[in-house]
Amino acid sequence: MPGTLPAGHDPAVRSRNRRVPVLDHVVTTADGDCPVTLHLPDEGSGPWPAVILYPDAGGTRETMRAMADRLAATGDGYAVLLPDVYYRTPGWAPFDLATVFTEDEERGRLMGMVKSVTAAHYRTDVDAYLDFLSAASEVSGDAVGTTGYCMGGRASLIVAPHRPDRIAATASFHGGGLASAEDPDSPHLRAGEIRSTVYVAGATDDGSFDDAARDRLEQALSAAGVTHTIETYPAAHGFAVPDNPTFDEDAAARHWAALETLYAEALPRA
Predict the structure, then answer these.
(1) Backbone angles phi, psi at 267, to 5 degrees
(2) Measured between alpha carbons, how far is 187 from 169 in angstroms, rounded to an integer?
(3) CA dihedral 117, 118, 124, 126 (to 10 degrees)
(4) 29, 134, 196, 230 - which has most CB atoms within 10 Å?
């Protein structure tokens, strides 16, 4: 059954060298076994509201795990699920974000990985993630938040209309392809099905979410009556992720504050 653990799977706790407790799990999806980590607050006994964190094009790595740690410890705490979105490519080699866009071969490999995860994949995967979170003793309530970066920002907006019954808060940071006129899977086309509160932060230097796309998304969300905020940070694409060459400390701090406010307002606590 999608969302369940393989028989006999015993999650390991990895917290000795981390700021917060982390549980290793495998979530069974429609396409196979997806490794995930569940990051928990280091204070309190829980359970906590759940948030799904979608990584950027670099995929799950230490930087993303550190970001999940920080999100788990934000405010009154969250149970943060970080999936390996590239699990359909077993054994994929990590990327060096400092050089990947200057090396043609690595850039090509990265783009291939990004394209390997389709909108349909995000939808079927989130069904399994939500089933998993429903069964997790560390998680409270049915309402779930999402956040994502770069391609993960698009994923966050793709799953919102797919599961309006569960997703209550949706965030996207320097996400691309959010409102494409040419893409039949562009998230803005299903704005009428979104029931979550939406926060989108683009960047002044980001061709993947230009003024035309921003206006298109704004119009779609407004017409659908979606509670939303769209902002443009004075930064470049990748501003929120520390191992990205375009990381911007001020913009990253602003993004953390925005997430704390969004989830405090939109994610109920038991």
Answers:
(1) -105, 110
(2) 15
(3) 60
(4) 196
Alpha-carbon distance 130 to 128, whole Å? 5
Residue 231 lies in a domain: yes
Distance CA 38, CA 52 (A): 9
Domain-embedded: residue 2: no
What's the pTM? 0.93
Handedness of CA 137, 20, 50, 152 (dihedral sign): negative
pLDDT in tens, 165-188: 999 999 999 999 999 999 999 999
pLDDT digits (tens, 9 = 90+) for 40-86: 999 888 899 999 999 999 999 999 999 999 999 999 999 999 999 99
In the predicted model, is pLDDT for residue 4 greater than 50? no
* Residue 211: CATH number of its domain: 3.40.50.1820
Ramachandran sector of residue 200 (left: φ over 0; alpha: ψ -120 to 50; beta: rest): beta
